Amino acid sequence: MQASVNRKRSECYEQGFLTLQAAGRPCAVPLDAVIEVLRPLPIDALTDVPAYLLGLSVLRGQPVAVLDLPRLLGQPGEAIGRWLHLRVGPRRLALAVPSVGRVEHLDQLDWQPLPALFEGDAARVVQQVAQRDQQLYVQLNVMRLLPDSLWRRLEKGASAE
């Protein structure tokens, strides 16, 4: 049983990550979740939503939620330079970030469970941390970027139109 768990865990990490900077720290998103990197597009703002949910935009003909990653991580006010169009299970969203780095194979890093570095929404989306070249990378859990309650609300609003 343990060998099976270790094999599945190692398979999970034998992938590339797209690195980016947000909230003053290097972050990593699993490459298999990234559809494309693009310049920011127009956004239709929403009311009564958390500040990190900027609104909706249309990507590839589909409405998607746009999330401000620095604000989600507790650092509002960073200029947004790129969007990551992400696959989140059967859904899609855009993650607004200050800058995008490059594809890295970070599977050799010693990823550790999250220490108590983040609070609130940030604690929900930061999955693990690892150190590389004196920098602490945070791995984002794309499946938890937007809570289910907000997904349902957005989907209900889209079906009402």
In short:
This is Chemotaxis protein CheW. With 161 residues, the protein is of the alpha+beta class.
List the helices and strands and how they pair.
Elements lengths: L1 H12 L3 E6 L2 E6 L3 E5 L14 E7 L2 E7 H4 L9 E7 L2 E7 L1 E6 L7 E2 L6 H6 E7 L2 E6 L7 H13 L1
Describe the 3D structure.
By secondary structure, the protein is an alpha+beta fold. The protein has a single domain, classed as OB fold (Dihydrolipoamide Acetyltransferase, E2P) (Beta Barrel). It has four helices and eleven strands; from the N terminus they run H-E-E-E-E-E-H-E-E-E-E-H-E-E-H. The strands form two sheets. Strands 8-1-2-11-10-9 form a six-stranded mixed sheet. Strand 1 and strand 2 form a beta hairpin. The longest helix is centred in the last third of the chain and has 13 residues. It is globular and about 45 Å long. The termini are far apart. The relative contact order is 0.20.
